From TrEMBL:
GO terms for cellular component: plasma membrane. The lineage of its organism: Bacteria, Pseudomonadati, Pseudomonadota, Alphaproteobacteria, Rhodobacterales. It is a multi-pass membrane protein. InterPro entries: EmrE-like, Small_drug/metabolite_transptr, Small_multidrug_res. GO terms for biological process: xenobiotic detoxification by transmembrane export across the plasma membrane. It comes from Pseudooceanicola nanhaiensis. This is Guanidinium exporter. The gene is sugE.
């Protein structure tokens, strides 16, 4: 169950990162509200996961899911640039997440 909570927390982190971008500096009400609601949910689920998982593992996986997810959303939805260096960096983050999970 802690891994499910951690996965959901990471997914909510992706949502709040995207909605924060859409809020245009918190000047748009709906995206701003989504940002804060999903932040609260993400932190709450992370806290539940941390009751059973080591701090470093939980935090690294949570931030990694958010970072990779935001990277993908940026490319697919927002048209962010795709370069070999950015793809290599994302691959390294993914490799770190897999190693972190295997070591837990």
């Amino acid at each position: 169950m802690p891994w499910v909570c951690l996965l959901l927390a990471g997914l909510l982190e992706i949502v709040w990162a995207f909605s924060m971008k859409q809020s245009q500096g918190f000047t748009r009400l709906f995206p701003t509200a989504i940002t804060f609601l999903t932040m609260i949910g993400s932190f709450a689920l992370l806290s539940v996961a941390m009751q059973r998982l080591p701090l470093g593992t939980a935090y690294a996986i949570w931030t990694g899911i958010g970072a990779l997810g935001a990277f993908v959303v940026g490319i697919v939805v927002l048209g962010d640039p795709v370069t070999p260096a950015r793809l290599a960096a994302a691959a390294l983050i993914l490799a770190g997440l897999v190693l972190m999970k295997l070591s837990a």
